[in-house]
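Two proteins follow. First one:
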Amino acid sequence: MKAWRVHELGQPRDVLTFEDVPDLEPKPGELLVKVLSAAANFPDVLLCRGEYQIKPPLPFTPGVELCGEVVGLGEGVTEFAVGDRVIGMPSLPNGGFAELAVMSSATAFPAPEALDDAEASALSIGYQTGWFALHRRTQIQPGETLLVQAAAGGVGSAAVQLGKAAGAKVIGVVGGPEKAAYTRELGADLVIDRHSEDFVQAVKDFTDGRGADVVFDPVGGDSYTKSTKCIAFEGRIIVIGFASGTIPSPGLNHALIKNYSIIGLHWGLYNAYNPAAIRECHNELTRMATAGEIKPMISERLGLTDVADGIARLGEGTTVGRLAFLPGR
């Protein structure tokens, strides 16, 4: 089979190579899937650089999220059958940027029929992260104002749609006019281009000085610091990650004075500590997709041979929206 491999760590464009590798075999409890689509995620960039919390042994195939067709079952797998269409995270070091991948049956989900392969491949990580952030960790309420940093990115775009579906007024912060146009199409009520606008003042103006009730922050760094300047009284800042590369040091005295909460979310830990909550979340996302309340917007549908360039552009911050790689293209 064909697969992208990383033999040494570095920038994606430099270290990803397209190779012939032996076909995979599922171990007990695993599914062997033909990859129908693999969505690009920022963790794929970090994996190539060796900066992700998971460090698979070299060489490895990145690609942390996919939609696939089950073509083989490992011993003990009874909840899926050959021919089923599934989504979820493949088992590293054999990720989704390949013709075949393996997945744990415990963390695979039926693909929603309402979504095509590319859309379904982008549902697991971003939308589950967004759902847990907005509904389990911050309990967003109808009529509240949600500020989404990096709103055109993978998890940010999901948060915009989920916030609108929850009845919130959504402000999206992006970098550049193309990303702003994409975020408006997602349904954001206000889109702020941080390259040309002061988002702190824009949030205050939009909320009549109150500020945002919930801040969804996968960026960290200066974005987090500025978010604290436009958070509402009794607001909640949900920390998702640090795409800026800078981990902020929050001023707890400021949180005390303004009565706001700083809340962390490591979505992946729910697989270990509360897998039933992950299943419940998937069932709700499937319902929402069927009802037309959410739908991943895929801005680029690329072939498998385009992985190195696509992941490199994602890491450079020049992509707009979600990228999906379809081996059949």
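Second one, unrelated to the first:
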Amino acid sequence: MLSALACPAGAALRRSFSTSAQNNAKIAVLGASRGIGQPLALLLKNSPLVSCLTLYNIAHTPGVAVDLSHIETRATVKGYLGPEQLPDCLKGCDVVVIPAGVPRKPGMTRDDLFNTNASIVATLTAACAQHCPEVFKKHGAYDPSKIFRVTTLDIVRANTFIAELKGLDPARVNVPVFGGHAGKTIIPLISQCTPKVDLPQDQLTAVTGWIQEAGTEVVKAKAGAGSATLSMAYAGTRFVFSLVDAMNGKEGVVECSFVKSQEAYCAYFSTPLLLGKKGIEKNLGIGKISPFEDKMIAEAIPELKVSIKKEEEFVKNMK
């Protein structure tokens, strides 16, 4: 799951290249020289919404920054290397995107990587709390309307798979995906798909399982060479562009994200969010769902609660 921090459907990334920028967004990418970070930074560099791109990692970032700086778009690019340069990378940023972390290998679950990746993200978000002001209770800077865990990849996959199944243009399909970002906690609400689609139960069960296990499919297909990077970079960029559009005053911007929630069955839950200039304007909640989807949510809640408790304990025990 990517994280995005901001002061914030469907076709956000696809339309962004023709969107005229109102405010010039300064965006930081932390983990910018790795498998997700590089293509994500490339997509951001190509957008007129971005005026300044700062890149951070513990290795290789200056080279990535120089490489990107040769592309003939308006965004300036600068690379920062190592913890001592992280504060300068973050200063004045409107949005911070964190794709940093260790990728899965065949046979590994997301939970297997929890301690390693949680430590990386915790270190980076602590720096965000100090140097570009919008993060976490431990630093007295927690604003739940401005912190997002990006689950957009599940939506991108759902849109693609449903379009393939029904012979539709994937650019015109929008399937909201609720819950979390691991296995059965990924809950595609195909009953709320736009345009409306009808699937017999066997197809519905099959495509739901495909969406839930799509990340593992990539890990297996890459045979030890990593996990989803290009599709995750696309999904992360799509979310960032929606965020920037909303910050610029565009109305009706909706994206799903795993956030602190009072609209669901546990403390954190992914649902569609109406985004605005100051972040989340409204959590749109779950809405009308089918019995099949209601059962999926019921089965996902215990697993989500365990994951949330584990994360809260991790933060509590941070030094």
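SUMMARY FIELD: The CA atoms of residues 118 and 311 lie 8 Å apart. Residues 291-316 form the longest helix (26 residues).
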